[in-house]
Amino acid sequence: MRVYLPCTLPALARVVEAGELGPAPLTGYAVTPALIEWYASGDTEELEYVALTEAARASLRMLAADLADGVHAAPRRVVVVAEVADRAVQASADLEEKGRVRVAEPVPLAKVAAVHVDDAYAVADVKAALAALPDADKGDDDARFVVDGAEAHELMWYATQEIPDLLGA
After folding, report:
1. Is the pTM of this model over 0.85?
2. What is the distance of C-alpha 26 from the center of its chain?
3. Mean pLDDT over residues 39-62, rounded?
4. What burial class does residue 58 get, using C-beta atoms within 10 Å of its C-beta: 0-12 exposed, 13-18 middle, 19+ buried?
5. Which of 22, 60, 102, 136 is most buried (CB neighbours < 10 A)?
6. Does residue 77 contact residue 155 with C-beta atoms inside 8 Å?
């Protein structure tokens, strides 16, 4: 099963160093039965895009958590795409996040298919979204609009062999 795992650039560097994403369980996003039912008219590509978008949202929250912990990294959302054995994936029962899954075991770097990352043009909007996130969570429509501004940026696709260059940039 293809799983979209939210990440950050510092976390991606740790993944490369460790040779795997872990420890388990990992939260990811995938084309789940609930997502298929909710988005009945969508084809596989559209459903995968929804899962990627959900993972990008989770990546923004990971960036916010890093900032709160004093970790200052490039404000770029990161999503790692991996092929995971179906038996290791459990769909969430949360109706708010229909594509959310739990991955029960670490994901070897060899199972990573690609990485999606914000380009430099998105940095200002991601910074603004990080600042607005607490107010957006409290229901502030203006703050939610700012967060949506970051989500309007498409993530760039990187092949696995490009990860070292991406981390070096």
Report:
1. yes
2. 12
3. 87
4. buried
5. 60
6. yes
